[in-house]
Structure formats: structure tokens, C-alpha cells
Amino acid sequence: HAAKAKELRGKPGSTKDGHHIPLLANVGKPADGKTALEYGAEGVGLFRSEFLFIGNAEPPSVEEQTKAYAELLAQFPGKKVVIRMLDAGADKPLPFLTPEDEPNPALGLRGLRTLRVHKEVLEGQLKALAAADAQTEADLWVMAPMVADAHEAAYFVKLGKSFGLKKVGVMAEVPSIALMADQVAKVADFVSIGTNDLTQYTLAADRTLGSVANYQTAWHPAVLRAIKLIADAGNANGMPVGVCGEAAADPDLAVVLAGIGVNSLSMTPVALDDVRAELANWTLEEAQEKAAKALNGEFYKSSWDD
Ligand code: PEP
Ligand code: MG
């Protein structure tokens, strides 16, 4: 099994009947690009840019940021690299940006909401990304976290393009953006679904709280139905929809996501072998049949049942 998985490493992610589902890597710092490539990632689906900001008393300079982004991009000439804008707040508080007195930080100032009130940070990061893009040959996609609807998506896309970025999209982590997916698909170049937060917010269960950890599973049919709303809107409008949350790293769930109509999957590099191997066992039609069952809740077991 492990041997077979390794054998597939040089090949792109694909169903048994040859439908290409690019398998990308989640990375946390530029040096991790090497690990991603070793595991056969076809690109980067989520670069969490927080590492540049965490542990510092103030935001990094545009020059510092440009250097870090260029270091990542230079490892992926001709390949897709999705960089996420700073996701400060909630489970990733930053002393100089995140208010300390929020009663519910997950429902507070985080992600794009934080960037909007700290415009100098938002614009500095966009400037650095555009500069790094100009220096390198990767196919750079830039997205914002914690976007609630098409208004916020339009705001970010317009701003990103004004800095010269070519592909600008949003993460889907809040149920409201799934409900408005048809409108979002008209303004964003792409959507990447963050199933960790989408699960937290769909089920109203804090992802950091052990007492409600049972809710933190994207196998819940409500989460899968939210994902389907986004995938359907994307496919109807020719807008790529990926998944970059933990759900993509579960081989069985990855098959379901492909069956729902998600176009690419991004995960921690060590998960790539198993996901690639499992996808290769299913035709697209079989994956769609499995997805229909999953959307009906057939694979979900509530902790309230005995
Ligand atoms: C997510 O929410 O699924 C995600 C990919 O982002 P993070 O885990 O960094 O919040
Ligand atoms: Mg998130």
C-alpha cells in the first residue's frame, strides 16, 4: 500500500478514469516548499503567511515580505502557488492587530476584517506579493481569509488587481459566503474552501474547544452541503473551487469532495501519497455516488447517537 502510494508520487492527482484533480500542498514557511515538492505536490494550495508576522512586535517590512514570498515562488516555476493574506485574529491573534477585549474572538475582528481596519498592513502585503510575482515565474494566486459575502469578495479582488495581481480570490470559511456563492462566483477568480473554519462556523462549535471537538468534522452533511453550494456555483460559472482545510487530507473525504465537484485539493504534504492513491481507486461517477450518500449524512455518526 505504502509502496504503491510512493510509486504514484510523480503523477498528477487523478480519478481512475483520468479526471485530473490537482493535489497541492499547504505550507507554513518558504522552506517548506521543498517538502511539498518531495511529496509530489503539483503546487501550493495554501501558503499561510502568518509566520512572517507571528512573534514580532510590528508587521514585517514590504522588503522582508517580498523576499519571503519570492523565496517560496522561485521553487515553483510554472506552477500554481496560492498565498493567503494574513489571517490575524481568533485562533491566530497578533498583539499589534487583534483587540484583547473581544468576548468571542472567532466572531470578531479576524482575517480580511482585520486587514480592512489596518489598511497599511493590507496594502503592504499586496505590494510585496506583486513585487515577488514580478521577480519569479510561478503562477501566483492570492486569496483573503474570513470573507463573508460577495461585497467583501469584490472589495478584495478589486484592491488586489489594483496592485497588479492577476488571480485574486477568497476563502470560503463562513456559511454566509456559501449561501451567496452564486454572487461570489461572478466577482472572484477562484474560491478555496477552508473546511476547518467552515465546520466551526456551520456547526457553531469553537474549533479550539475540546468540549465541542465532536462537532469538528467535515463529514457532517451540513458542511458538505455548504461545500456543494460553492462547488456548484463555481462549476456553473467556470470559477475554480479548491479545498485547503484538513478535510482534503482525509483520503475517503477527498473522494467525496471530488464527487461533489471540487476542482483541486490542498493538504499537508505527508497526506499527499494516501490521497493520490485513494483517488486513483474511484471513477468520477463512483465518487459522485459516494458524495450523494455523504451529502445525505450516511457516513456521519453523531456523538449524540448511541
Ligand atoms: C481553514 O480554516 O480550513 C484553513 C485552511 O485555514 P486555517 O486552518 O489556517 O484557519
Ligand atoms: Mg481558516
Automatic annotation (TrEMBL):
Reactions mediated catalytically: L-histidyl-[protein] + phosphoenolpyruvate = N(pros)-phospho-L-histidyl-[protein] + pyruvate
Example GO molecular function: metal ion binding
Subcellular location: Cytoplasm
EC number: 2.7.3.9
Active site feature: 244 (proton donor)
Primary subcellular site in the record, as a coarse category: cytoplasm
Function per UniProt: General (non sugar-specific) component of the phosphoenolpyruvate-dependent sugar phosphotransferase system (sugar PTS). This major carbohydrate active-transport system catalyzes the phosphorylation of incoming sugar substrates concomitantly with their translocation across the cell membrane. Enzyme I transfers the phosphoryl group from phosphoenolpyruvate (PEP) to the phosphoryl carrier protein (HPr).
Protein family membership: Belongs to the PEP-utilizing enzyme family.
Protein name: Phosphoenolpyruvate-protein phosphotransferase
Organism of origin: Bifidobacterium jacchi
Organism phylogeny: Bacteria, Bacillati, Actinomycetota, Actinomycetes, Bifidobacteriales
